[in-house]
Amino acid sequence: MTVFIKYCGGCNPLYDRVQFINELKKSFNGSGIRFVSYEDDGEHDAGVVAQGCFRECVRETRLNCKRIFYVKQRSDWDHVRSGLLSLIKNTTE
Question: What's the DSSP call for residue 16?
Answer without folding.
Answer: -
